[in-house]
Structures are given as structure tokens and as C-alpha cells.
Design brief:
This protein is of the alpha+beta class and about 500 residues long. The chain folds into three domains: about 10-125, PH-domain like (Roll); about 130-355, Rhomboid-like fold (Up-down Bundle); about 360-499, Tetratricopeptide repeat domain (Serine Threonine Protein Phosphatase 5, Tetratricopeptide repeat, Alpha Horseshoe), CATH 1.25.40. Helices cover about 55% and strands about 10% of the residues. The protein has 18 helices and nine strands. The chain has helices spanning about 95-105, 110-125, 130-150, 155-160, 160-165, 170-175, 195-215, 220-240, 250-265, 280-295, 300-320, 330-355, 360-370, 380-390, 395-415, 420-430, 435-450, 455-465; strands at about 25-30, 35-40, 45, 55, 60-65, 70-75, 80-85, 245, 495-499. A hairpin with a 2-residue loop joins strand 6 and strand 7 (about 80-85). Helix 3 packs antiparallel against helix 7, helix 7 runs parallel beside helix 9 (about 250-265) and helix 13 packs across helix 15 (about 395-415). It is elongated. Residues about 1-25, about 185-195 and about 480-490 have low confidence and may be disordered.
Length: about 500
């Protein structure tokens, strides 16, 4: 008796087993292009042109689903797919093939047990729980984007920088996953124009892969998978030696690892229409890590991707077999889930003082920066901290001394080639009372970009022709020329930020 191909719960599973009795020991259902679905006494074969035919024992069946456009046959070793239009009768063919597969399985020793297991999977698949963990992660990514668009300094506050993380800015291990942007060399800042692209790619990955993990595992376990994927991402960054990383791609890789762990270790607990073709998925993972990440190694944080993948895989394997009955969570599971939530909240809260430009937080951040080894990759952080200290108000002489030191280091590390950084140093000198030093420094910026009105107006402030508190509009808002000015890059082959 064929099943309804459009039904999520096809009929034959709930009918008496003798309704499927098949007197013929062999049966062949022809498929398009010379293929066939061959039923033998001990197993079935899917015969396709130019592909090796393998005998699949009926006991290897885990779930069979006849959808509107596809017959999906889940086995312990993978997923077989047959398009409905490849059957002689696209309307009845998938349901008939499904019924025959279940009839042969029912006739095997312990067949009733496996039929009952498929019934449980059908009931499990009929549930439509809201993927809370997935969408909460997406929401945090979107909120991070909003914060970046409102204040571009948020990137410096939340990106994962191993040097600063090791000196006490632990929140970066959390916030880095929810910020986005495209990488660039040291001469191109800010990075915001690429932010929507990077965000869309990672959010798309979360939305596509998240439900494939959350439907079988549930929201609590998926939160743990994402949390351990984040831990793996940070470990991968540290191990690979990346200088600075932002983005949720480590979490996306962790979901991919969890999907593979479920596929390899618990295939019998997955409805066939929740599974992905194992071979294609493995090939995609290999291409990601050994081709794409290697080709884009200067721009893509391969260590973060690999670490997240391993973290997600181990998390799903450690959590064990999915609970098809969705019983109450164990105390250990509740504690682990709560721990992930607490760490995420603590990380976000920990970044708030610096994100709000609190002077005390800025002072502590400046000290950590100066304690870090002198390196080109920190010049944006040096410059951002120096500018905020000099311009936010309420800075003490000690704070301004820190600002001058940071701005001077940023200028020296970039070869005094970036007028914007020279302007920060000039501003810090001016606020600390060194007008002569401010004039000399802003004159350097003017020589580098003589057509930018902002630097000329800054000089007028420093000479007293303009009020001290009347800072001009930012660079680019009142240019003296129409064509863009592009100073020579410092080192175009040395990108700093990776994603």
C-alpha cells in the first residue's frame, strides 16, 4: 500500500506488518537513466549509471521518508536520495518503494523493533520546536552589528586579540563571536564597509546549520555545542597564532562538526529528512579546511575554523545519543547550559565599560596596551585608545600621558605614513598642553594630505584661531578636492584582521 508522498507521517508505518507481505523474493523498480531500486532477499541496491552498486542490508535501515519531491533512505552508513521524477510514476513511486523497504525490514529477525524505532522517529520529526539557541546566537550577532554601526570603536573593544586577552581582557573570548567585518591591510580603516557581507555569510550559516543540530539535540544541548565550539575557536586561534580575529565563523564550523558527529555516531536517531549526504558533507568540510582556508590564509582564520569544528564535534559526541522522547533535562545538563549562558552574559557585561568609553576602563586598557609587546598589529588599538582618552573629557594628566605614549607608538609603528594617526598624536599632545608638539605633528599630517580641510582646521585650533573645544568635522566631510586621496599603503601584503 503506497504512502502519501506529501505527508510528513506516511501511512504504512502505522499499519499491520502483514499489509506489506511481498511474495516475490526479488523485485526491481526501474528508475530514470537506466537506474533501478533492486530488492533482494537480504538487502536492497540502488543502481545508478556509472556508480558502484552496494548491497544495503535491510537491518541497516534507520528511517525512510517519502517527501513530495524525494525519497530519502537513511541507513547506518549514510543517506540515499532518489528524486520522485526518476520513478515511472512520480506520484505513487516513492510511497511504493518506501512500503516495500519497510515490508522487507519487517520480515527480518527483530524487524518489529526497527519498525517501532522508525515510528518513534516519525513522531519525533513531527514536532516543531523553536530553535531558541540558534536564533539567540543570530540575535547577538545582529546586536553586535548594530553596536559597530553606532560606534566603530566597538571592534577594537570586542575583537579577540591574544595579547590583550592574556593581560586580563577576558571578555574578548566571548564578544569576538558576535562582531563582524572584512579583513584589510593596515592602511585601510575602518573595516565597516565589509561588515554586512561578513555578517550575512555567518548568519546564513547559523540559520542553515543550526536547526540541523538543534532539532535532534534540543536547545539546551545546542547551547552547550555552541559554547564548546566557542572554546575550541579560541584554542584554535591561540594555537595558530592569529593576531586578531572577529566573526561567528568558528561557531558555524562548530555546528558543522556537531552535524558530522551526529551523522557518524548516532545516525539511527536522525529522521532521514534531517540528514545530509555524508560523502558530500565530508568533501565540503575537507575543501573548507584544506583548500579555501589555505588559499585565503592571510585573510581567513583557519585556526579558528578548525578549533570551532573540533569543539562542536567533541561536544555533540560527548553529549551522547539524542533524546527522542524529550524528557526533562538532567541536573548536569541544566548546569552546563546555565554555565554557557552565564559566561556569555559575563563576557558581554565585561566589555560594557570600555565600550562606553569609561575613563577608568580606558586607562586600564591603555596600560595593558603599553604592556603588550610593541607590534604593528596593535596600532589600531593604540590609536583608538589614545583618541578616546584625549577627546572624551575628564582625562587626568596621567591619562593624557598614556594617550601620548600610545599615539606615538602607533605613529612610529606605521612609519609616520598615516595622517589620521598623526592627528591623534597631535590631539593628545594638544590636550596635554604641548601646543608646539601638536603643531609640528599636525603639520606632518598636512604634508601627507594637503587637500584635507580637517587637518588645516585642526591646526587653526592649535594656534588659537579656532576655539579649543570647537573640533572640526571628521576627515572627508569637508574636502578641498573632489577626487579621493589614497596614501601609499604601509605593507599591502601584511593583513592584520582575520575572520
Amino acid at each position: 500500500m503506497p504512502s502519501d508522498p506529501d505527508s510528513d507521517l506516511p501511512g504504512p508505518v502505522d499499519e499491520p506488518l502483514d499489509a506489506w507481505d511481498e511474495p516475490s523474493p526479488n523485485r526491481r523498480i526501474p528508475l530514470a537513466h537506466g537506474g533501478a531500486l533492486l530488492f533482494e532477499p537480504d538487502g536492497f541496491r540502488l543502481i545508478l549509471p556509472r556508480k558502484r552498486s552496494v548491497l544495503h542490508p535491510y537491518e541497516s535501515l534507520t528511517h525512510v521518508h517519502a517527501a513530495g519531491r524525494m525519497l530519502l533512505i537513511g541507513t547506518k552508513t549514510g543517506l540515499l536520495t532518489i528524486r520522485s521524477r526518476d520513478f515511472p510514476d512520480p506520484e505513487e513511486g516513492p510511497g511504493e518503494a518506501r512500503a516495500l523497504l519497510l515490508a522487507r525490514l519487517a520480515g527480518r529477525p527483530d524487524g518489529a523493533h526497527w519498525i517501532e524505532q522508525m515510528q518513534r522517529l516519525d513522531r519525533f520529526a513531527a514536532r516543531r520546536p523553536w530553535p531558541l539557541a540558534t536564533w539567540a546566537t543570530v540575535a547577538l550577532c545582529v546586536l553586535g552589528t548594530v553596536a559597530q554601526l553606532r560606534d566603530e570603536m566597538v571592534e577594537q573593544v570586542g575583537a579577540f586579540v591574544p595579547d590583550l586577552f592574556a593581560r586580563g581582557e577576558y571578555w574578548r573570548a566571548v564578544t569576538t563571536h558576535f562582531l563582524h567585518g572584512l579583513p584589510a591591510g593596515p592602511s585601510s580603516m575602518p573595516y565597516l564597509p565589509g561588515l554586512p557581507i561578513h555578517l550575512a555569510v555567518n548568519v546564513g550559516g547559523l540559520i542553515v546549520l543550526g536547526p540541523l543540530v538543534e532539532r535532534p539535540l534540543g536547545s539546551a544541548r545546542t547551547a552547550i555545542v555552541l559554547g564548546l565550539s566557542g572554546v575550541g575557536t579560541i584554542v584554535g586561534i591561540l594555537f595558530a597564532g592569529h593576531l586578531e580575529v572577529i566573526g561567528a565563523s568558528g561557531l558555524v564550523s562548530g555546528l558543522a562538526g556537531a552535524i558530522l558527529a551526529l551523522e557518524f555516531h548516532f545516525p539511527e536517531t536522525l529522521p532521514s529528512h534531517w540528514r545530509l549526504p555524508r560523502r558530500l558533507f565530508v568533501i565540503a568540510v575537507i575543501l573548507q579546511f584544506f583548500v579555501i582556508d589555505r588559499l585565503l590564509s592571510d585573510y581567513v582564520a583557519g585556526g579558528a575554523h578548525l578549533g570551532g569544528f573540533v569543539g562542536g564535534y567533541l561536544a555533540a559526541w560527548w553529549l551522547g545519543r539524542p533524546d527522542l522522547e524529550r524528557g526533562p533535562a538532567s541536573p548536569r545538563l541544566r548546569f552546563a547550559t546555565l554555565s554557557v549562558v552565564v559566561v556569555v552574559v559575563a563576557g558581554i557585561v565585561g566589555a560594557v565599560p570600555l565600550a562606553r568609553h569609561d575613563m577608568g576602563a580606558l586607562e586600564r586598557h591603555a596600560i595593558r596596551l603599553l604592556d603588550s609587546p610593541e607590534s604593528l598589529h596593535l596600532f589600531r588599538h593604540d590609536n583608538a585608545a589614545a583618541w578616546l582618552i584625549a577627546t572624551e573629557g575628564g582625562a587626568t594628566p596621567q591619562d593624557l600621558t598614556l594617550a601620548v605614549a600610545l599615539a606615538d607608538r602607533a605613529v612610529e609603528n606605521t612609519g609616520r605614513q598615516l595622517p589620521g594617526l598623526l592627528d591623534t598624536l597631535a590631539e593628545a599632545l594638544f590636550q596635554s598642553g604641548d601646543r608646539l608638539g601638536a603643531l609640528v605633528t599636525i603639520d606632518e599630517a598636512i604634508r601627507l594630505d594637503p587637500r584635507e580641510r580637517y587637518f588645516i582646521e585642526q591646526r587653526r585650533r592649535f594656534t588659537g584661531e579656532r576655539a579649543e573645544n570647537d573640533r572640526p568635522p571628521p576627515p572627508g566631510s569637508e574636502p578641498l578636492r573632489d577626487e579621493p586621496f589614497d596614501p601609499e599603503p604601509i605593507d599591502p601584503e601584511a593583513p592584520i584582521l582575520t575572520i
